[in-house]
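Work Package 3 (structural annotation) set out to generate three-dimensional models for the target panel prioritized at the project kickoff. During this period the team completed the workflow that converts sequence records into discrete structure tokens, so that structures can be stored uniformly alongside our sequence database. As a representative example, we reproduce one entry of 349 residues exactly as it appears in the project archive.
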Amino acid sequence: MTTLDELDFAETERALREALATRARHVQPSSRLDAILREASQPERVEGGHRGLALVAVAASAAVLAGVVWASRPGTGDATLPAGPPSATASPAPQPSDSASPPQPGPRPALTLALAVYWVGTNGGEGDRPALVRAFWGADLEATEPASAQVRAAVGESMRRSALWRGTVVEDVRVTAGRISIRLSDSGQDARTVEAAELEVAALAWTAQAAVGRGDTPVRITSDDAGPLLGHVSTDTSFTRAATPPESVADLWIDNPGPGAGLRGGDPVIVTGQAVAFEATVEWELLRGTTVLRDGFTTADAGAPRRGTFTVDLGRLEEGTWTFRAFTTSAEDGQTVVAERLVTFTVGS
């Protein structure tokens, strides 16, 4: 199986961040933000464009909600976003809302800096194992802020999405040529298993690396109480992406659009994402409510066990709320869903 050090997530993150920053003005905010954040408990610094990623970059710009892009988390088994106090650098945790209002007119919040954030979500499908998912989050930072400030903000946002880090804040970040050092206020709450704790810590390490944008730079995480992280993980070693098992990363990511994204009417809706899929086949459905109006499949640029990128051009959609579902099926029977991800977005006038 392909190891994670062979996968290049940084290229996509750079392209997506660049697109978000350049096209944010064309996006309408949606008042479904509160609801989506509660339902969703589911880019790195841009050095410039990259040849071969132009299509991904353009597609990425199609979905920014109030300057923020989230990856969707599938299924009803997902934990909701914790309602406790956020970290010192994260945005305040919104209150739940049952309303689903269309985009409202008014001033649009400005996107300052889009950071890739990783946290523990679920894979969806049969088994629905815990796995790393990715979001693109609009931080209240200027692009000129030092790498340490970007790491502090992004890691704080990642922690806010986990109940195990509730009440823990990032006290200090130091970035050198060969290491990213993060000091937390405490070691967090005890996870149920070693594996669960390791996955949560991996999410912080991946997030920190994405903010710095220098590949698989080792990440050292310590805490003021000097205890093992989440009750199980030693602070004596550094963490890398290469040390994360491939099965710890969700098979499917939908990078764009994000949940609750308010898209401008008249623009084509282009879905982009990544998948580990048998014969590179990703199936999809487009729904209004619970009704499937369109379906089809697309082919990623690599098949399992490799991770490939995929694109679905939905064209111009009518105004209203839509849900896009991506899923992969078993190589054995072609019916059993092995991974699934959904995202709901709104098309305005």
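The first strand starts at residue 113 and ends at 122.
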